[in-house]
Amino acid sequence: MKTIAVLPEGSVSHEALLHLFGDEQVELLHYKQISDVFLATATGKSHYSVIPIENTIEGSVSLHMDWLVHEVDIPMQVEWVYPSIQNLIGRREEFSTSTGDIDFSKVTKVLSHPVAMAQCLQFIRSNMPHAELEHVGSTSEAVERVKQHPGEGWVAIGTTLGAKRHCLDILANKVTDHDNNYTRFVLIGQDPLSLAISSDQDKTSILVTLPEDFPGALHQVLSAFAWRKLNLSRIESRPTKKRLGSYYFYMDVLTSLDSVLLPSAIEEIEALGCQVRILGSYPSYSFGK
């Protein structure tokens, strides 16, 4: 049986993983911190780890990307995009009016993961501008802490699964500021993974570090993909952490490493003096789009 490290029960990561595997039996290891999720696979405690790396509204999860690049050397084996549906969670009896509506003025504190909180700022400002905002390690941890502090006016932003697991109520459904709120997850591990469902497409993620003192190097790198008609779905610069002004480029190429054209493109880029690191070549799935 596959063992998979993931953030706590009821988190978006947990909900997304259950959707990806469906009825397939897997053993889950839950951790409060994303660093422990990474290390579970790095140290052999789990076969795979679930890592959220990008969100429609907030963009890249920089901390997680840096872990993939600087802290561990574990390839991506699967990617999937899943809708991040956030809800306001608490005890209904604490906030109900005589008519059964929710009195948001009674909310004293809102807890959630910083990315989830950022996805719901318009709702918070419109309904609870007076409330204290507190960031925690995951949406599930936020729900758990609300459960542990009854009668204090605390609420959490989290998933339906999280509310169910901790026996709390949904005070307001779908409180994200935009309807098109999706999160991109990757499953990292040393072994390729085969799923029963058909993928939407294949993708390869690479890191390219440009040579110093090479004017126009990035243009030539992009040209290696362009004339082969290889589509880049993402390109992002991140600091190498070696010195100020030194960057690598993270790129997603919409093809498999087994294709004819991509290996030759990489060879051309390396001939320019660039360093290329393969982060993974994997199937990509989309749910709810």
UniProtKB/TrEMBL annotation:
In this chain's numbering, which residues are marked as the site (Essential for prephenate dehydratase activity)?
A: T183
Pathway the protein acts in: Amino-acid biosynthesis; L-phenylalanine biosynthesis; phenylpyruvate from prephenate: step 1/1
Record-level GO cellular component terms? cytoplasm
Q: Which UniProt keywords apply?
A: Amino-acid biosynthesis, Aromatic amino acid biosynthesis, Lyase, Phenylalanine biosynthesis
Reaction catalyzed: prephenate + H(+) = 3-phenylpyruvate + CO2 + H2O
Q: What class of enzyme is it?
A: lyase
Annotated coiled-coil positions are: none
Domain ACT spans what residues? Answer: 206-283
The Gene Ontology biological process terms listed for this entry are:
L-phenylalanine biosynthetic process
> Which EC number applies?
4.2.1.51
Q: Where is the Prephenate dehydratase domain?
A: 2-190
- Molecular function (Gene Ontology), one example: prephenate dehydratase activity
Q: Which InterPro entries match?
A: ACT-like_dom_sf, ACT_dom, Chor_mutase/pphenate_deHydtase, Preph_deHydtase, Preph_deHydtase_CS
Q: Which SUPFAM superfamilies match?
A: ACT-like, Periplasmic binding protein-like II
Mind telling me what this protein is named?
Prephenate dehydratase
